[in-house]
Amino acid sequence: MGSSHFNSTNPANREDILGTFANATLDECREACLAARKGFEQWKKTPAPIRAGIIANFGKLIEKNKEAISQVLTREMGKPIKEARGDVQEAIDTCYFFISEGRRLYGQTVPSEMENKELYTYRRPIGVFACITAGNFPFAVPSWYFIPALVCGNTCVWKPSEDTPRLSLIFAELLYAAGVPKDVFHVVFGSGSETGANLVSLVNEGLIDKVGFTGSTEVGRKIGEICGRNLQTPCLELGGKNPLVVMPDANLDLAVNGIIWSGFGTAGQRCTSLGNLIVHKSIKEPLIKKIMDKVASIHIGNPSEENIFCGPMMSERFLKKHLENLDSLIKPHHRLITSKNGQITDQNKPERFSGNAQLGFYAHPSIVDNVNENDAIYSTETFGPLFNILSFSDLDEAIYLSNKTGYGLSSAIYTENIESSYKFRSEISAGMTSINNSTTGAEAHLPFGGNGKSGNGSRQSGIWVVDQFTKWQAVNWDVSGKLQLAQMDTSYINPSDYVVKI
């Protein structure tokens, strides 16, 4: 398949090639959608508990192969092995959560205003679901989409990230082994700009009924425009410039741990990574000192080693974009408080480094101080090991700085004050908020998603995602043997003329 090919390489060692994959053409994307539409006719008739039973098999297969999958994940996208195991475990958790949802796709029996008339509601599958995912969570995020989509009776066409095609193939093979028919789930490989664009264009041909996308706000807008013209609502999980507020009463040691994990976990390549650290003026310098001590202890290197905190960036293009951000977004009035920045090389390595600087795409953690709301770096998602520091005088200012970027994905506050916690969680615009915890982290039964530039209000995970993959049908069943017209033939009871006398 495909008119051209691309390699999947290990970002910790560019000479290590995991496989060669074909770029799917427009015709091949169309073929996959047509096959999925044909498969939908039988899959939607498969009882939901049976569909969920197949997902139970999928979860068991992932669990059985968890370590092998985690090793491939680390090798293909560079996430430290501990994080990789968590990525895979999230897919397992999602499977086991949605097993029971196959028996809970409830409708309702609704009382009618007419005699001998029954009203019902049913959840029905939407149809062909096309999805484009990113490479930073190559096993967890696809499970958020496809497990509920399949349980609800939809068929799927997936364009995974070109950074993790080997792992995507494993995902699909395990689904087939679990019992998902091959005409129900299809994978097309290639870049987002070509194969991804080809796939989404098929919305215009009526071959796709729902689109899911995890990626940049810029691309999300384009997908939203195509879907909107076709009266469809996509499921968009987009970028973030996630704020973390530290109040003067915060436990600073706890806050530092959350800051470092939020900023540099997965080399800062999470949509929920820390973007703006917003610190009260009274504690700014003591907090910075603690942060810098912690940064000095970070172990960067080969992600397959157990003690690594930060591995390489996912690919060379992500490293180049990070370097461009350092060049273009940092201005003279800023203070770059990290002493080593940019690409890690043999001549510019941190002390605790164990990777191959020549063959890997490694970057130093970077922190920019003296940022204000008028700076481009304040409102630009940088998607790398880089975050900003801003200061504030009171909580109202901190909330203002947290919301003004226009993003609304994740957020966090560190405080020991209940009133501050309550005010922050009530006034923050983000779809997700943590109190005394980091900006990152998701659980299979909690809704995940953002507002504003971070998404269109759709949510993954938990029972809420069922609304993304079903449509409501209302059934009006009249057994009276005659035409009954609601509102017109209804026998309403008129009130009497009784007047209370005092």
TrEMBL record:
Segments forming domain Aldehyde dehydrogenase: 4-475
The organism's place on the tree of life at top rank: Bacteria
The keyword Transferase belongs to this UniProt entry's keyword annotation: no
Keyword list, A-Z: NAD, Oxidoreductase
Family, similarity comment: Belongs to the aldehyde dehydrogenase family.
PANTHER family, sorted: ALPHA-AMINOADIPIC SEMIALDEHYDE DEHYDROGENASE
Protein name: aldehyde dehydrogenase (NAD(+))
